[in-house]
Amino acid sequence: IALLFHDLGEENWPAFRSCIQHYRALGYEIVPIDVYVDAHAKGKQLFISFDDNLHDWFRALPLFDELGVRATFYLNTQPIREWASRSEIERFLARIGYDTSLKTLSAHEIRVLHGAGHTIGCHTHSHVNLAQLGQAGWDEEILGCKRLLEDIIGAPVDHFSYPFGMRRFFSEPLRAYCIAGGLKTIAAGVPGRLYEPGVCAFDLQRTRLQFSNSHRQNVEDVAIEGRLV
């Protein structure tokens, strides 16, 4: 099972804690992405990821440590605080539906997340619909984001999730471009369990868990037959 989250304000920590405890009680092991896509890995595995760029992930470091969670954070680089003005950050947040009073991460905080054992992935520079761009746009949004993050953490950034998550926002030429650019995994936001044998590293399905939904609804969403979506 692969789960997708976005914001994680302190008011949602109890719900996140309950989610992790639920899957642990079912026998799932929380694993990093490299283990999740390993064809030789065994057992019931749970992959935790977050999209966009939100400071509340950094504030949640004690919660992740408490729960033994090592997540993958797919980051947009445009709103990083060192090089984005407050007005630019607010426009970014508004454009993708967040409260504009929220903070985004600094480069220092991204390094701390990485140093704490979490995985840093790229989610494009400015969170755009990649299907509407040509290769010059892909260079800036995907590889540009990857290189900026590599400069920040001083390590390779091998993992990518595309904005908006549904397959209509991606394409086979884009997939080939990402693979040629050195990315080792590509994650979608398509809900449902991965029923087919194995895990395709270049088409990772992830179910979005929403704290506004009931626990029952979130569990039912994860049980969707993903190939129907």
Short description:
The chain is an alpha/beta fold and 229 residues long. It contains 9 helices and 8 strands.
Number of strands: 8
The dominant shape is globular
What is the average of the pLDDT values? 92
Distance between the termini: 16 Å
Helix fraction, binned, reads: 25-40%
Q: Give the ordered list of helices and strands.
A: EHEHEHHEHHEHEHEEH
Largest sheet: 6 strands, parallel
What is Rg? 17 Å
| Number of DSSP helical runs | 9
- Enumerate the spans where pLDDT stays under 50 for 5 or more consecutive residues: none
Estimated share of beta-strand residues: 5-15%
Decide which structural class fits the backbone: alpha/beta
Considering the chains and any ligands shown, give keywords for the structure.
9 helices, two-stranded parallel sheet, globular
Can you tell me about this structure?
The protein has 229 residues and is of the alpha/beta class. The chain is built from 9 helices and 8 strands. Strands 1, 2, 3, 4, 5 and 8 form a 6-stranded parallel beta sheet that branches. The protein has a two-stranded parallel sheet with strand order 6-7. The longest helix has 19 residues. The model has no long low-confidence stretch (mean pLDDT 92).
